[in-house]
Structures are given as C-alpha cells and as structure tokens.
Fold this protein.
Amino acid sequence: MSERSIQLVGKSTYIVSLPKEWVRERGLGQKSKVILTRMSNGTLAIISGASDIKRATLPVNQDPDLAVKLLIAAYLDGYDSVTFTSDKAEIAESVRSALRRAMSRLVGFEILHQTPTELEIELAAEPKMLATESGLTRMSLLVESAVNLGLGSSSEAVSEDLDEVDEDSDKLNFMYIRRLRQSLTNPSPSASINLDPLSIFDILMTFRTLERCVDHSVALSKAWLENRNTIDDDTKEKIGKLAYATVEMLKAAVDAFIKKDVTKCTEISKRRSAMRSGEFAEVRRIQGVDPLLTYHISRIVDYSADIAETVLNEGYGFIR
C-alpha cells in the first residue's frame, strides 16, 4: 500500500498517480482505459478495463468426487472455462457422469467440447443482475418449502421433492457466492453488486448459514416421514408447532438482516433462549421421540439467531 497525493489540474479536475508496478502488471500504458467504480461505502475501485475470461485446465485422476470438488471450486472462484484433461487414459464415464450431475447445480455451466481425454466446460450464460435481498429471501422460503413437504404432506412420495429443494438451495447458494466473491476480487461493473467488503462478507456468511438451514429442514422432513407413524397425535402437534414456529423465526431473521432491524434482531436472539428452556425442553421430555427431530429444529433456531446476531455484532443502526 502506498499513499498518493491528490493534485488539482486546472480549476476542476483532480488527479492521482497510479503505482508503476500495478500499471505494468496489468499491461497498461499511456492512453489505456480504466474503469472507476464507486462502492456503497464510498471506496473507489480501479479496474483495468474489461476483465479477461478466466480459464483453468485441471488434470483428471479418475476420481469423480475430486473432479466435482475441483469444478465447484473453479466456479466459486470466478472461472468461466474449466477443461479437464487426461494424458494417460480416457476420462472415465463415472467422472463424466459426476461432472454432468454437478453442472445441474452450477448456473450457466455447460459442456462445450469433449474428446476421450478432454472435457471442456464453459460458462454459457450468467445473470446480469443479482439482488442479494431476493436471494436471501428465496433461501429462507426453501426452508419453509421443505418443512411443508414433510410435515404438511400425507404422501410418502415426497423424498424426491425434498431432494429437489436441496438441489435448488445448492444452485442458488453457489450462484450468489460466485458473484459475491467476484465483487470482492474484481469489482468491475459486470461483477459488482455495489456493496462494501464488510457487507459482502456478512452476506456470504448468511448464504452459507441458510444453506445449512435448508439441509436441516430437508433432514427434519425425512426424519418426520420415517417416524410419524410411531408418534401420537398430541406429540405430532407439539413438534409441528415447534417446526413451523422455527420457520417463521428464520424468515423474520432474514428480513431483519436485510433491513438491519436491530430491535427485531434483539427479539430473535432472546427468542432462542426462551425456546431452549420452553418448547424444546417440553418435547424432549416426551418418551419415544426421535432426537433427530428436535436436533434439526434446534439447529435452524440457532442459525436464525446467528443471522440476527450478525446485525448486532456489526453495530448496524446504533454504532454507524
């Protein structure tokens, strides 16, 4: 980091010099164009023109799980093109199948070209604008959908629907994490969500928290379907009320996070303590209830309070 002095040229033009090393690293020179982007916190970002397509070439060791992890990592790191290659043998069909399944969760990624020893995947399309508020709300609604599918259905054939909710959550989560990370590393107009780095960090953590909430809501519904025939009606009603109250708590936490509502966040944090000593204690005393049911609900409660406390910890509304 180096300190630069602002200079006044003429009567109304202010200029500041750029570090020589940075100019050379970016391949810039006299009359090169740069893009200035004003972030929401007043920070001014300088981008060296249109960013190039990020390409990655990755060796294949015939491990499907590793190939999928590498593809997801490249997607989240902002790569637009990923080529898997194998020098010694053909890429196994198990690897190709795993990558095709993974691409269903990565918005815009499609197979561009493939040979026996090469598989090229490229970003064909990407949303131009992403509203983080909408994404966070949609994630909380997926939790509600999963609970409704399990606890609100009399059909046994909902397992596939729950898996689809889980896949939708992954897809939404990956898409926003990719764009948010791009905004941190390359705040160009095409990638920027126009948020300061601290806000981006908070939103990233909240998306990850919500993805875990979806996981727990899906697991809760599957555990409910497995156990509901062994639970009496009174216990079913108590667990159901607790689950739906938890969903409403999570939705309230997300709304409070978006609005930076300190009062509501404080209420949600207190509500967690009350539920632990109240409704949860009552259900746990009932004999024969699968502890997984209360476990998954309690995790969503804890994550809801974590989301609310993010606002409190950053001092939104009373420190800034």
